[in-house]
Design goal:
The complex is a heterodimer of chains A (about 300) and B (about 290).
Chain A (H helix, E strand, L loop, with lengths): L9 H58 L5 H6 L11 E8 L2 E8 L1 H8 L3 H19 L5 E4 L11 E6 L7 H7 L20 H50 L5 H7 L20 H16 L3
Helix pairs in contact in A: 1-3, 1-4, 1-6, 3-4, 6-8
Chain B lengths: L6 H25 L1 H28 L6 H5 L11 E7 L3 E8 L1 H8 L3 H20 L4 E6 L9 E6 L7 H7 L20 H52 L6 H7 L11 H4 L2 H12 L3
Antiparallel strand pairs in B: 1-2, 2-4, 3-4
Helix pairs in contact in B: 1-2, 1-4, 1-7, 2-5, 2-7, 7-10
The chains are: A alpha+beta (about 300), B alpha+beta (about 290).
Chain lengths: ~300, ~290
């Protein structure tokens, strides 16, 4: 069992577990996909991450528009709608204004988990594809994303973000939506909508979508072979998660899973699945992972 | 750098930096906020076309077109004042740091980093978009031209998995894994014809975008810029010649200015259309 920092609350511990499991899901499934399907599998995996990034970018943009936020780099990095917070990620910010955000991420628990579980190169794929898709979709396809170093590369010491959105690249309508100085009647943004969500709620929705797009693109690109690999991956994941949980909790029960695992064990109880229904993704997660995990943990 | 043989190459590079700064400044002055769109789009088009041509050239030479083949090219121009540290030079990954940049130095001395940043922010992405048909990812997270950084950091990624299966073999040698980068090695690349191409093509791109977005006003901005440029570059050449106790004559200009002005060589028609050439002659050459 890892050491818990002295200032940690029960919620902090749960948030760490949730993030680790979300990260691990991608790493273990991704490793299986590349191992069994080679470059074709990698193609599907990269596309999955891009779709996931685009999904998140689109939703966050919509949330910001509804709240009256301008769609720019200041909003993207400061106005909520992002990842649930966690104490293990440390960063330094150099500038964060509407046209440019420059910062470095100095520690990243996701990179550490991928390294610990021997899927560092899978994490690399995530970093490479996700941020481009997310910020570009968020900013009407017009952001310039620069992420020249990441902690998912050996020998680098920080992730280096330099993300730009320039009015010169935008249409007149986009300019007004992105920058106050181009809007004849700018509204006051209602930031109260962006209360910090619970780690359970946040990571559950992230996990669902990332897994979903992996399941869908695998089958879309590789048919039955992709589906078989997904099933193998889910079986492997169940074993890895079982071991992780047993390290952390002597007698895990359903309540423990509800608070520490980012997927409901009865997936039919999660209303977020209503929008994500292709490729039997939910059913496969249920039968090949959730049911297995419950059995392995004797719950 | 600054050796007998290298100084002319440095001067030629400064002429290119001067072209971009002078025309860019005039465009901003005349066209206001629209001017930035002109400059950025000009650099984007310039970068994309250069990238596409580079890829086609490698294809015609019977070479693959991964990042490794790009890095191995020798018939380019690189100002000796650049200090570049290659970190990774592989088919799929090209990482490098730039520790000194004569373009950034030029712009900083003349309070031109705002214009300079437009080039840095646009060119890298545009070039690799053209070189890889939009399939590679270009990252420039640290920029010497900017206020925070003491180096540029480029990381380019080009993945076989992001290409269709039938294109992968054309671009990548999939039998071998990528090789580690060589030790940092400063090569003297002095193909001045390449720099001449950059100079005239950049001018043409600025002209075309200024006209497209600004019509006559845009063309006038370019014309005003060329007149200022003629004065600036004439003074620079005289200063450089004087510093070396040489006459600023045709021979000196031929070595220290990036465009061949000998009419017999007729370089303009290779890179400029009729209107662009006329404007250049009337507003720059006549005064230069």
């Amino acid at each position: 069992m890892r050491q818990i920092p002295p200032d940690y609350t029960k919620e902090d511990i749960e948030a760490d577990h949730l993030q680790d499991q979300y990260t691990l899901m991608f790493g273990i499934l991704g490793r299986r996909i590349l191992g069994e399907l080679g470059t074709d599998g990698e193609q599907a995996l990269r596309e999955a991450v891009r779709r996931y990034g685009a999904d998140r970018g689109l939703r966050d943009r919509q949330k910001h528009l509804e709240a009256g936020c301008k769609i720019n780099m200041y909003s993207a990095f400061n106005c909520g709608a992002g990842l649930p917070g966690n104490k293990r990620t440390h960063s330094i910010r150099f500038q964060s204004v509407p046209e440019v955000h420059t910062s470095q991420v100095l520690t990243c628990p996701m990179a550490e988990i991928w390294d610990r579980y021997d899927c560092f190169d899978i994490g690399r794929i995530y970093c490479e594809e996700f941020h481009f898709a997310y910020y570009n979709t968020y900013a009407f396809g017009k952001a310039k994303v620069n992420l020249a170093t990441t902690l998912t590369e050996r020998g680098t010491e920080y992730c280096s973000f330099h993300v730009l959105l320039n009015p010169a690249d935008l249409s007149e309508e986009e300019k007004a939506r992105c920058f106050e100085e181009y809007d004849e009647k700018p509204e006051e943004a209602d930031l109260s909508q962006f209360q910090r969500i619970s780690a359970q709620e946040g990571y559950r929705f992230l996990y669902l979508r990332l897994y979903y797009y992996m399941a869908v693109t695998l089958q879309e690109y590789l048919g039955e072979q992709g589906k078989e690999t997904l099933i193998h991956g889910l079986h492997e994941l169940a074993g890895v998660v079982r071991d992780y949980i047993r390290e952390e909790e002597q007698t895990p029960d359903l309540c423990y899973l509800e608070n520490n695992y980012p997927a409901k064990m009865d997936t039919s109880q999660d209303p977020n699945w209503m929008v994500y229904q292709e490729g039997s993704a939910r059913e496969l997660l249920q039968t090949e992972f959730c049911d297995r995990l419950m059995k392995e943990l004797q719950i | 750098m600054y050796s007998y043989s290298e100084i002319p190459f440095q001067n030629q590079q400064d002429c290119l930096s001067s072209l971009f700064l002078t025309l860019g400044s005039q465009i901003m002055k005349v066209m206001g906020r629209k001017g930035e769109t002109v400059i950025r789009k000009a650099v984007q088009k310039f970068g994309v076309s250069l990238g596409e041509e580079t890829r086609e050239k490698l294809k015609q030479e019977g070479k693959r077109q991964s990042l490794k083949e790009l890095a191995e090219q020798k018939d380019l121009f690189l100002d000796p004042r650049f200090r570049i540290m290659p970190i990774r030079t592989r088919q799929q990954e090209l990482w490098a740091e730039v520790h000194t940049c004569p373009i950034a130095d030029y712009m900083k001395e003349r309070e031109g980093t705002g214009i300079g940043l437009m080039f840095c922010e646009e060119f890298c992405h545009a070039f690799f978009k053209g070189y890889t048909d939009g399939k590679a990812q270009a990252n420039l997270s640290k920029v010497l031209m900017g206020p925070f950084d003491n180096h540029c950091r480029f990381s380019i990624y080009y993945r076989p998995a992001n290409l269709e299966a039938d294109k992968r073999e054309q671009v990548f040698d999939q039998e071998t894994t990528g090789e580690e980068a060589d030790l940092p090695d400063r090569k003297l690349l002095h193909n001045t014809k390449w720099l001449q191409k950059l100079y005239l093509r950049l001018y043409a791109s600025l002209y075309e975008e200024a006209e497209a977005l600004g019509g006559k006003e845009g063309i006038c901005a370019i014309a005003l810029g060329l007149r200022t440029l003629a004065e600036t570059q004439r003074k620079d050449l005289e200063k450089w010649a004087s510093a070396r106790r040489m006459p600023c004559d045709a021979a000196f200009i031929e070595d220290n200015y990036p465009v061949q002005l000998d009419e017999e060589k007729n370089v303009f028609s290779s890179y400029l259309n009729k209107e662009e050439e006329t404007l250049f002659r009337e507003n720059f050459l006549k005064r230069f």
